[in-house]
Design goal:
The complex is a heterodimer of chains A (243) and B (62). Chain A has 243 residues and is an alpha+beta fold. Chain A folds into 3 domains: 54 residues; 48 residues; 133 residues, Phosphorylase Kinase, domain 1, CATH 3.30.200. In chain A, β1 and β2 form a beta hairpin. The termini of chain A are far apart. Chain B is an all-alpha fold and 62 residues long. In chain B, α2 packs across α4 and α3 packs across α4. The longest helix of chain B has 18 residues. The chains are: A alpha+beta (243), B mainly alpha (62). At the A-B interface, α1, α3, α4 and β1 of A face α1, α2, α3 and α4 of B.
């Protein structure tokens, strides 16, 4: 495989901003000396823009897609369970899961870590992602996630404004990632429609950030902030009061 | 040929990853999680989808 073949294989990671700095630099260095690969990347970017423009008013039914895929996976798993191999595997899995569960019982849910990692990579480190920041795009994105734009902009305390947003997957669930900025500090709110209602969680430390979860009966949200536990809880309380 | 028409010519596997990546802005890792397929599968479907779209739209877009 020559260098250009490798570049073509890695192109999706480059375009989605998922490469680490070293790989991204190496990729960009190749584009500087290879007109063919540079043209391919430029065309791919143009294609993505054309798709966004053409489908701007049309929301692809990827929510339905996600449900359909998960349904298919669950059917496959159900079939497996009817075989002996499936029963043995299920029993073994249950034993292992029970043992692990005892050890990890008190750990925060995976979505807390996912939210903290997304905030760190995409907001603190500024890794490139496809953010929406102009009002029409923000309004459309909010609607796709069951929110009015005024709700999305109103969940931050005074002094903060909604800077940008994108969809993401947190703990296997599609969520809207909102970034708020007050001129000096940014924090993230991850929110998705949710029917359960629970008390707000205590802030949990995840690396350098703190994560607080809330459930309003209509929405579930996670607030990620590098501030104190009290400040993080306040931001979560402000968000929950508006949803 | 228009973008939507070209999109309809793709197989559903390629169309789905392209929509999730290009329109919804999901990363390859996230798409892999949503669809329950390997990252490599997502990347190859995405590359082939973009390549097919480039060919289908070469006259009008590029």
């Amino acid at each position: 495989m020559n260098r250009c073949d490798g570049i073509r294989m890695q192109a999706p990671l480059y375009l989605s901003g998922e490469m680490d700095a070293e790989a991204r630099d190496a990729f960009a260095a190749h584009l500087d000396i290879c007109p063919g690969c540079a043209a391919m990347i430029a065309e791919d970017r143009k294609l993505d823009s054309a798709l966004q423009s053409a489908l701007g008013e049309f929301v692809p039914d990827t929510g339905g897609l996600e449900q359909a895929v998960r349904h298919t996976i669950s059917l496959d798993r159900r079939r497996l369970h009817w075989t002996w191999a499936g029963l043995i595997a299920a029993a073994a899995t249950l034993l292992i899961v029970t043992a692990i569960a005892r050890e990890y019982w008190n750990r925060p849910p995976r979505r807390y870590a996912d939210a903290a990692v997304d905030h760190r990579k995409e907001v603190v480190e500024g890794q490139p992602r496809r953010w929406r920041s102009n009002p029409p795009e923000l309004a459309r994105l909010a609607e796709q996630n069951g929110l009015q734009l005024t709700q999305a902009t109103g969940i931050a305390p005074a002094g903060y404004r909604l800077e940008r947003a994108k969809t993401c997957t947190i703990g296997g669930q599609r969520m809207l990632h909102l970034v708020f900025y007050n001129g000096a500090r940014r924090y993230s709110v991850f929110v998705a429609p949710h029917l359960a209602r629970r008390e707000m969680s205590q802030p949990v430390r995840q690396g350098a950030e703190r994560v607080t979860e809330f459930d309003t009966g209509h929405f579930r949200g996670l607030v990620v902030s590098d501030g104190s536990a009290v400040a993080c809880a306040e931001l979560a309380r402000a968000a929950a009061s508006q949803l | 040929m228009e973008v939507r028409q070209a999109l309809e010519r793709l197989g559903s596997d390629q169309r789905n990853v392209l929509l999730l990546a290009a329109v919804e802005g999901y990363t390859c890792r996230e798409i892999s999680e949503i669809l329950g397929v390997a990252m490599g599968t997502v990347m190859s479907r995405l590359s082939r989808a973009r390549e097919a779209m480039r060919e289908l739209l070469s006259e009008v877009m590029l």
